[in-house]
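COURSE: Structural Biology Practicum
ASSIGNMENT: Worksheet 4, Part C
STUDENT ID: 0417
INSTRUCTIONS: Below are two proteins. For each, the amino acid sequence is given first, followed by its structure token string. Answer the questions at the end about the second protein only.

PROTEIN I
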Amino acid sequence: MLASFFEKPFDPNRRLQHQIQERLIEAILAGVWPLHEPLPATRVFAARFKVSRNTISLVYERLAADGYLMPVNRRGYFINERALREQLTIRQDAKLKDSLPTEARPLDLEAKLRYRFTGQSHITKPNDWRRFEFPFVYGQTLADKTSVTRWRDCVRLAGTAQHAPTWISDLVDRDDPMLIDQIIRRVLPQRGFRAAPENILVTIGAQNAVYLAASLFCSPGSRVDIEDPGYVDARNIFLSLGASLKAHGVDTNGMRVTGALSGAEVVYVTPGHQSPTNVTMSMERRLALLAAADTHDFIIIEDDYEHELNFVGAQRPALKSFDRSDRVIHIGSLSKPLFPGLRLGFVAASSAIIEEMRVLRRLMYRHPPAQDQRAMALFLAEGHYDAHIRRQRKDLSGKWRRVFQEVDRLLPMCAVTQTTGGSAVWLQLPADLPARDLQAEAARNGVLVEAGDIHFLDQAPPKNCIRLGFGAVSLDQITPGLERLAQVITRMLAARRPGPPSRRPAVAIA
């Protein structure tokens, strides 16, 4: 019976020791081995399943340390009967559900729900995006092997006796002081401002920070002004809280700042790289927005999730750097430029706002994982973050230039939004080519692109916009990928109308 748990081949991408340990635990809990008999000797086990004897010895020792096995001198390792009995008791208790009545009153979920989050329109991306030959999908990136190695070193260092005391205890509602210090000294100066520890809060990614800020200042009927097109998940956060949204158009200088902002209570902007067009807000617009905030008495949520990635000209200082009345809530991401799946961000705001956020965060999840915070603090302190940003800027700037060069050459029928950096471009297709149709056809040809209609607040949005993310595509794949996309577009246009496609002038958005 024990052999049945080892019939499936081992995964070559995982450590053999861990896989053997997992399977042995499954076998022990399944009760397939007699309690009065020792497990096979390490030599026998190793020969039977063609693995190293040392590996089996390490597995047995670890299972004994964890209480699954008991070593008996000169006899070998036996299953720990007490541990097995505890597991079997839990399983037997769980079977009591079979004694419950078969008929039960069904829950009327619709009557109980306060808000249907599943009724919102969300950006959808295939989980298997890596299988596409040309994944022009935004928000994903290729692995930086050097940074992966450096991060692994910092995680290992965070787990040593020197640093473990900083994360093994519950921080309650506080953050790792070393990470706060590193954000203040290493991150904020690059954004043009400084802050005190009481002005900083660590979050589980920038989007979590948006949710915290929105929860403080939005309620049913609150008016929130947003960019259009804009960031879908932020829009959904505001809507879920009952806010009333007012859209403001975007051009190559960012969100248009006009008298229409009068009456706003909160204004949400992405000035570093506007989502989804990727344009950077001009200094004139930034100053005008701050002046409007004072005039009309509203709060600004500045989502500067990708501040570091401008390739033309100097980095522009954040809105927060000009804030003189504590109206700006600055949000940044530590993980998006590094590893998007890491999920670490921060908020910089007045101490009063941060304290309110801290209490709200405590009710949600207390604080982000403290070991991750310490590892990030070490990553920053040892200079790895800055080195990563330099490598990333060099890599993405090359891709950025290649994309604009090849879009101009291969897609003359499309209008491209000019940007100063970032990891994506915004394209307007010919009016008679729906982006959703192109998305589906391109995917069938190995090219993954994103339709842009979901980013508009209007119920009848433009149907011919797409976003091309190039962070997950290597430089040498950009040209063949865009060639493939151009072929798909050309075939689709030929099926819809006669004659060759015409070149269109570049515009900011549809």
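PROTEIN II
(use this one for the questions)
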Amino acid sequence: MKISFIGSGRVATHLAIALQQSGHQIQQIYSPNLTHAQQLAIQVHAGAVDQLQQLDHQIDLIIIAVKDQAIAQVAQQLPKHLSNTLVLHTSGSTDLQVLQQHHLRCGVLYPLQTFSFEKSVDWQQVPLLLETSQPQDLTLLQDLAQQLSSRVYVYSSAQRLSLHLAAVFACNFSNYCYDIAKQVVDGAAVDFSLLYPLILETAQKATEFNPKDVQTGPAVRQDQQILKMHQDILQQQQRTDLAEIYQQLSHAIQRRHTAT
């Protein structure tokens, strides 16, 4: 397939490279910042443009990989010569109707993964969540997705949104807790790497058991003395923000485990 990308960030970069390696031709990379477009275009042997009107009409697929709040504006501004082209976005939280308002042939290719420029992605293990406005395009999109991943699912916009919300808790919030943990040990001149086995074991157990069943720690044990000691330490360090987070999470764990 001939594919053009709108966007040159992390998702666009990983996805464009993966599709090119799967044998597809990346035709163009669009970004309002031409330098950013060129940086990705060089990697996938594509052309770089900074005007939407410059997008080639002789392509099979356009993938919009931009910030969620920009998808609607991009969809509205796509030139008319692309009206018969299949247009996808890659967002977990954006309803398909955002594209349907402007394009008859549209869909979603949402990779349920966290992306960074520093680390490669094993696409075979990345869940790809699909949705299209036209049944015939779903077949096409499934074929494309199966070339990248062994985990391809067809989910509605509402289902995809629930996964996106869950991913914020499982990934973004948990990573912030790792950041807090590093701040705590850094303040006491303790090596953060000592926590690595604990972090990995906790994540592994969450994939093997119901997370509720393997909850540990002073909150689930109702150990009020330890809970108070930890909060006192944070207060003494003048980290009232972390003390508040600690208290809220501890109370939430206690409520969760006293409700049943």
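ANSWER KEY EXCERPT:
Q1: Residues 2-155 form a domain with the Rossmann fold fold (CATH 3.40.50.720).
Q2: Residues 157-187 form the longest helix (31 residues).
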